[in-house]
Amino acid sequence: MTRPDSARNVALDVLIAVEERGAYSNLLLNDRLKRSSLSPRDRGLATELVYGTLQRKNTLDWILNKLVRKGIDTLDPWVRHLLRLGIYQLRYLDRVPSRAAVHETVEIAKARGHRGIPGLVNGVLRSYLRRSREWTLPDSPKSVTDLALVTSHPEWLVRRLVEVYGPETAHSVLKANNRPPGLSVRVNPLRGNRERVARLLQEEDPRLRIRLSPLSGQGLILTGGNPASGRLFREGWFTVQDESSMLVAELLAPRPGERVLDGCAAPGGKTGHLAERMENRGTLLACDIHPHKVKLIENQVRRLGLSMVEVRQADLRELPGTGEARFDRVLLDAPCSGWGVIRRKPDIKWSKNLQEVDSLRQLQAELLEAAARLVTPGGTLVYSTCTLEPQENREQITAFLKNHPTFQADSTLFDTLPAPVREKALTGDGWVQILPHHFESDGFFIARMIKEK
Question: Where in this chain does the record put each SAM-dependent MTase RsmB/NOP-type domain (predicted)?
Fold first, then answer.
């Protein structure tokens, strides 16, 4: 049955699909919004409903399990998601009147054609409003269970973050995960400098508020607009990229004329950054194992006007045996659990678990082994992830260096970090770990190693 395009219907469709297919919410939402006829305002509401409901799922379920007699797990999935959407609006969205939230949610229940469900939905939402005093959460949660409830994360993740970073820092990370992600862009220096691009962006959209990034000399922080839909983006004047992510290419520090490898390159954001820093001169091989993702890299390269990049569909682990010449600098931006980007992809915290880290560690070690074989003597190897899990980061690098005595941690890395990063981030011998609350950016780990000559 064809349903009317409304923000709440779109959000409900995405939430159901995320659970059924296990796909990422951001990809599903973007695809659904492209096919919708929603106004910009309703697109914003649909986005808020999807991400907000996923972010607050633990807290919403705690409430709903007190309101649904047999518990929400006994309900059909679409009814469960609809009730979460309804409670989310009542609890977290000040701009949506309670009467409208209840009415619209009940109307969706009626439209989806299940007898009795509209009455259930209406009763649950009105009970929530009547029993409002019951939903107060602890101001200073002490236990893992309370912290998981207040910040709406799974207990296993809260327990692990407390174990690794301590309760205070873990609480800061968890709170940051629930704040909306900022928007930052990386200026393409082959088109113009940061000040010029900032001026052009302001002319293109006067609503934008623009300031310089303290973390990257190519970065701008934007609020109040959507620059990715404009002409400047299409013409390659900038790339949308998180500030922490910009540090990766900057710490690899490739130079014009060098031979560089980006071993797990999709979707190509860091590939473009490497080529920009190389002034589009030298050799840059960008590989990815997934054929459909190779197209994403090619699109980035074309949009930025880069001619030096060779894009290849290849498994990095097999590259050393193909006769490929070694590289001056190798970047391994490894597949990881993604705990540093939960604010952008809140479904990660519900779809992943600690057991998956074991298989990721094995894959990361195999990729590191291959990457190391491709570094020329005296060359540089940078390993990065967007996770906070030390088994994938510090412990991975410690084990690698122990088994590869020809590599040394680059102790000069600390001095090359921007001053704010040196002051706030966690650092060690040749590595830096940025947590989400440090700069309201993604959580990132970056290690730099040098191969002996």
Answer: 173-452
